[in-house]
Design brief:
The chain is built from seven helices and six strands, in the order ααββαββαβααβα. The chain is of the alpha/beta class. Keywords: Membrane, Transmembrane, Transmembrane helix.
């Protein structure tokens, strides 16, 4: 029992105290180097255009071995014809393997707005982003957000390796344990390690998914050149129905008011008639 405890304790803390990979600093320095160069002509601000961050797409490389970078973007365009713009976007999706994950079409006439979320392979993000901006219309807002998770990913991978090694050692100890006390102690530690392994594996799968695909939110709204003089069709029969409905509502309210007066009238009439009777009787006695 004492020997077993001495073996278990160092193994339990070995993965916690394990140093991180010495290559983390190299990854970090390399992954942020592209942010310094923001001279890409295709992303410079222009008239009527606002952008949170200017980046050089040719410097943004998330598909290099070892790098884990999350990239997402947003683009807002004013277009003359919304349906035509959505059709053009579908053509771009087919070209770059973009998948529509959400569509929100709200408003009517000149106030109509279409918001679309696209899922795109991260290695085609820059091409797709630039192609969408070339859709016929005026770009009023554009943004690219980049998050480097390389260091955290390497840290998780290192911890996961240590935990799996610890699991193997605990399994071997469990096979040699003889007493029930030792078996339960090792099984308890083994379950804890396996739970942490599952947690780290889920975290790694999340990062893999987030760094393999990017998401771009695209918003289309009507430009001044696309505004129609007659925003909505005139529907006279519909107006007649609305007017009749309003009339019925007024009549119903009047009838309801009369019903309430009739129901509550005794509360007013009885005291009034009683007072009037008493006044007349007093006058009759004086006469």
């Amino acid at each position: 029992g004492v020997i077993l405890t001495i073996i278990i304790i160092p193994m339990t803390f070995s993965f916690v105290l394990s140093p991180k990979s010495s290559s983390i600093d190299n990854y970090r320095d390399e992954s942020y180097s592209y942010i310094e160069d923001s001279t890409s002509p295709s992303l410079l601000m222009g008239e009527g255009y606002s952008e949170l961050k200017t980046l050089a797409p040719e410097k943004i490389e998330s598909n290099r071995e070892g790098l884990k970078v999350q990239k997402n973007g947003s683009i807002t365009l004013l277009v003359e014809d919304l349906d035509s713009a959505v059709t053009s976007l579908k053509v771009v999706n087919n070209k770059y393997q973009g998948q529509i994950t959400n569509i929100l079409d709200h408003g009517r006439g000149n106030d109509r707005v279409v918001q679309i979320t696209i899922k795109i392979p991260v290695n085609r993000f820059e091409e797709y982003y630039e192609t969408v901006r070339e859709i016929d219309g005026e770009v009023t807002y554009a943004n690219i957000s980049i998050l480097d998770v390389t260091e955290e990913y390497i840290d998780i991978a290192s911890r996961l390796t240590n935990l799996k090694n610890t699991e193997v050692q605990f399994t071997k100890i469990l096979e040699k344990a003889e007493t029930i006390t030792d078996i339960l102690a090792v099984q308890r530690e083994l379950n804890t390690v396996r739970g942490e392994i599952e947690s780290y594996e889920q975290r790694m799968r999340y990062f893999d998914n987030q760094t393999e695909y990017s998401h771009i939110n695209i918003t289309f709204s009507v430009d001044k050149t696309g505004i129609s003089v007659s925003d909505e069709k005139w529907r006279p029969w519909g107006e007649v129905k609305v007017a009749v409905k309003a009339l019925l509502t007024v009549l119903k309210s009047l009838v309801d008011a009369i019903i309430w007066l009739v129901v509550f009238s005794p509360l007013v009439l009885i005291p009034y008639l009683l007072i009037r009777y008493l006044i007349r009787r007093r006058k009759a006695k004086k006469a």
